Amino acid sequence: MTGIMICKQPQLYIKFILLFLFILLFVLSCSRDKHESSFFEPAESLKKADTLISEGKYEEAREVLEDIRAKDATQKYATIARLRIADTYFEDELYEEAAVEYESFLSIHTRHRYSSYAQFKLAMSYFKKIKTVDVSYSWAKSALDEFERLLQEYPRNPYLDVTEDRIRTCKQILAEYELYVGRFYFKKGSYKAALLRLNKILQTYPDFDNESEALYYIGVSHKNLGQQEQAVAALSSLIEKYPSHKISGDAKEVLASIIKNK
């Protein structure tokens, strides 16, 4: 009987040691996880990212912000990090990438306290891509759509003055593009195609700065198509609205030739 007890004791001792080691490893693991968790401070990381952005170190800032977005379980700082990632692209003049990130933010946070900011910056990302009239139609159209969405979705946004000014600029660029294309067709002798573009200016962009030129080409296009009444109407409107413009002098000559040939 005693022999049996002595035989069993080593087995119990081994089991005890294994259990002790398992508990020890578990405690150490939890301690390490707790230490790593407490080591990550999203607020401090966000400050670091802002500093890097102010120094123009956009790629480094994005790495920090991506880390916040991945590790912040509360999502409080992860949401801001998502927006600041878009800002790094914008500041780095990578406007297409910025637009993607702002759109991503807005798709998730339509009513966040920074949603109007994201919408404004999205519109500005497209606006910044505008260059010459002949290649900027799509960017101006996208910018106009996003600025108008800003006014519609966030009517009390703090960017009203800038937004209204940008909307006017976008409309001028779009109208200038229509004039550019209309003039191109006019010079080719494609007067019907020219009229489609030029009349669109009068209908869609009534405050266009170069409306006088549009009216002139409309009038001459009608004349060349043998549509004398429409030609007289357009040229007379030009002369009446812009009597001191040089192009009104040209319009008077064309109008005189129409009247003479009646």
What does this structure look like?
It is a single chain. The protein contains twelve helices and no strands. The chain has helices at 2-39, 42-54, 58-71, 76-91, 95-108, 115-127, 137-153, 160-188, 191-204, 211-224, 228-241, 246-260. Helices cover 81% and strands 0% of the residues. The protein is mostly helical and 262 residues long. 31% of the residues are buried. Helix 8 runs antiparallel to helix 9, helix 10 runs antiparallel to helix 11 (228-241) and helix 11 packs antiparallel against helix 12. It is rod-shaped, with a radius of gyration of 34 Å. Residues 1-7 and 33-37 have low confidence and may be disordered. It has a domain at 210-262. It starts with a helix and ends with a helix.
Short description:
The protein has 262 residues and is mainly α. It is built from 12 helices and no strands. The chain has helices at residues 2-39, 42-54, 58-71, 76-91, 95-108, 115-127, 137-153, 160-188, 191-204, 211-224, 228-241, 246-260.
Rounded to an integer in angstroms, the radius of gyration calculated over CA atoms is 34 Å
User: How would the global form be characterised?
Assistant: rod-shaped
Q: What structural class results from the helix and strand content? A: mainly alpha
SSE order, as H and E?
Answer: HHHHHHHHHHHH
Give the overall average pLDDT. Answer: 89
Number of helices: 12
List low-confidence stretches. Answer: 1-7, 33-37
- Helix content percent band: over 70%
What composes the largest sheet?
none
Roughly what fraction of the amino acids lie in strands? under 5%
Distance between the termini: 137 Å
Q: What's the β-strand tally? A: 0
